[in-house]
Structure formats: structure tokens, C-alpha cells
Amino acid sequence: MNDWFTIEQIDADTYAISEYKHWEQTHCYLVCGTDRAVLIDTGLGVANIWEVVGRLTALPVMAVTTHVHWNHIGGHKYFDSVAVHNAEKDWLSVKFPIPLSVVKSNLMWEPCEFPCGFSIDDYEIFRVRRKEFCMMGIVWTWVTGS
């Protein structure tokens, strides 16, 4: 079992999935409903967060992005589809505003013991194809990995 993620159960249907071993200490939240679940953010992407989510719920999971920063979208690659706010859709489909070299430098800024199998040389920024939709009066972009 990969011990990169720390799982904390908040209540019967809610979990915090954290990456405490990295200086960013990213936190993602899994909220399980009766028919489906939502994962809020997907972390750094240095370990497979989908495997953790799959151990916590058998429900279909939609990943939702709070904002498109590298430490919130890294694990998007493990999901078939994610929701991204329309105002930030171009960051994932046209041009991410920070060069990959800077993202990699930020990822490695403070030394840590990365999970087995992680290679900074193979790290990529998540890229997408997109389809827009409206939810709660906000235009979101449903994206799938390319």
C-alpha cells in the first residue's frame, strides 16, 4: 500500500486525503453521496490518488477543481473526467501560465521522499479536451485528459 497519502475520515461520508510528506501539504476532499461521490481537487499527481479514492468508495467519482494551480490538478490524469471553472479552462487546454520547468522546480523545492515510481523527468502538467456545461448558474468546463 502506498503511504504517500494520509487519509482522515471527517464524518461517515467525507474524507480528507492529504500529502503531508511534501512541503505544499496539499489536501483533497472526498464527499460521498448516495449515488455518486465528488473529489475536490486531486493534489500533486506524484502518486495515484485514484487508488486511494477507490479504496474509500465504490461510487462513481467526479473530480472537481477549486482552482487550476499545479498542486490542485496533478492527479487529474487518473480520472476520466473532471470539472473546471470556465474562467480557468484555457489553463489546461491552451497554455498553462507557468512553464513546466517552474512547476517541476516548485515540486522539488524542498527535499522529500517521493513515492516509489515517481520521476520528476516524467512529470507533466495535465492537458485536456473540453466541453462546457452550466451548473448552479456558473459555466463550468467538463474536461477529459488527452
List keywords for this structure.
4 helices; 32% strand; 8 strands; eight-stranded mixed sheet; alpha+beta; 146 residues
Question: Any overview of this molecule?
Answer:
The protein has 146 residues and is an alpha+beta fold. The chain has one domain. Helices cover 17% and strands 32% of the residues. The protein has 4 helices and 8 strands. It has an 8-stranded mixed sheet. It is globular.
Distance between the termini: 28 Å
Per DSSP E runs of 2 or more residues, the count of β-strands stands at 8
Q: Count of helical segments?
A: 4
Average pLDDT level? 88
Class by helix and strand content? alpha+beta
Q: Fraction of residues in helices?
A: 10-25%
Number of domains: 1
Summarize the helix and strand pattern as letters: EEEEHEHEHHEE
What can be said about the biggest beta sheet? Answer: 8 strands, mixed
Strand content: 25-35%
Strands ordered across the widest β-sheet:
1-2-3-4-5-6-8-7
Shape: globular
Compute the CA-based radius of gyration. 15 Å
Which consecutive residue ranges, at least 5 long each, have pLDDT under 50? none
Quick overview of this protein structure:
With 146 residues, the protein is α+β, with helices and mostly antiparallel strands.
Secondary structure layout:
Elements lengths: L5 E6 L2 E6 L6 E7 L4 E4 L8 H8 L4 E4 L5 H4 L8 E4 L3 H5 L6 H8 L20 E8 L2 E8 L1
Parallel strand pairs: 4-5, 5-6
Antiparallel strand pairs: 1-2, 2-3, 3-4, 6-8, 7-8
